[in-house]
């Protein structure tokens, strides 16, 4: 019988530990890959949540920016002899129902042009004249602007009072009826 020299015990032990170390390395690599995949999934979910939260914050910011401007109300006020054929008023009341003052209020009456008079809206019979661009309207205050007299050639369909004003944050707005836009 021939005798095969399979090596000595230390060599076998070294080979066994090397094989165990290689197996442990493969297992560690697989574990790290699984962990990286889980982290990628977690990051993707977090990115989705952050995108939704960002969208909500953007909407809340827009609402906060527009809140004061949306509290400005327009109303018509009729004067004898100053009504069009379809009973459109030839003046407009600006009511600041917001919590802060607004500034630089001006009105243009569509084809009738800019307002020709501005007055504080106070107690009955009180008629305090204001500049055509009202410098400041405090909270819960009102003022009204008058247009020029209607003429037979005026087209009432183009009569659209546009009020422009600056809110307490310094943003300029235009309001025509219920249509609010930020001015450039």
How far the N terminus sits from the C terminus, by CA atoms, comes to 103 Å
Element order: H for helix, E for strand: HEEEEEEEEEE
Count of alpha/pi helices: 1
Q: Uncertain spans, ≥5 residues at pLDDT below 50? A: 79-86
Largest sheet strand order: 1-2-7-4-5
Number of strands: 10
Instruction: Estimate the strand proportion.
Output: 25-35%
Assign a percent range to the helix content: 25-40%
Radius of gyration from the CA trace?
Answer: 38 Å
Global geometry: rod-shaped
Oligomer category: single chain
Question: What does this protein look like?
Answer:
- With 184 residues, the protein is an alpha+beta fold.
- It is built from one helix and ten strands.
- The strands form two sheets. Strands 1-2-7-4-5 form a five-stranded antiparallel β-sheet. The chain has a five-stranded antiparallel β-sheet with strand order 6-3-8-9-10, with no helix packed on it.
- Strand 9 and strand 10 form a beta hairpin.
- The radius of gyration is 38 Å and the shape is rod-shaped.
- The N and C termini lie far apart (103 Å).
In short:
By secondary structure, the protein is an alpha+beta fold. 34% of the residues lie in helices and 27% in strands.
Task: Give the arrangement of secondary structure elements.
Layout: H1 9-70, E1 72-76, E2 91-96, E3 102-109, E4 117-121, E5 129-130, E6 134-137, E7 142-146, E8 161-166, E9 172-176, E10 179-182
Antiparallel strand pairs: 1-2, 2-7, 3-6, 3-8, 4-5, 4-7, 8-9, 9-10
């Amino acid at each position: 019988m021939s005798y095969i020299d399979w090596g000595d015990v230390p060599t076998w032990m070294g080979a066994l530990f090397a094989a165990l170390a290689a197996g442990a390395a493969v297992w560690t690599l697989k574990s790290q890959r699984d962990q990286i995949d889980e982290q990628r999934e977690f990051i993707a979910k977090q990115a989705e949540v952050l995108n939704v939260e960002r969208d909500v914050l953007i909407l809340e910011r827009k609402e906060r920016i527009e809140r004061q401007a949306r509290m400005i109300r327009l109303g018509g006020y009729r004067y004898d002899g100053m009504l069009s054929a379809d009973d459109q008023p030839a003046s407009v009341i600006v009511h600041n129902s917001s919590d802060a003052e607004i500034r630089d209020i001006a009105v243009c009456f569509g084809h009738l042009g800019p307002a020709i008079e501005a007055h504080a809206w106070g107690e009955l019979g009180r008629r305090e004249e204001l500049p055509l661009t009202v410098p400041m309207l405090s909270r819960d205050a009102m003022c009204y602007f008058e247009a020029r007299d209607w003429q037979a050639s005026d087209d009432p369909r183009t009569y659209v009072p546009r009020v422009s004003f600056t809110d307490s944050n310094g943003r300029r707005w235009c309001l025509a009826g219920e249509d609010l836009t930020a001015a450039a």
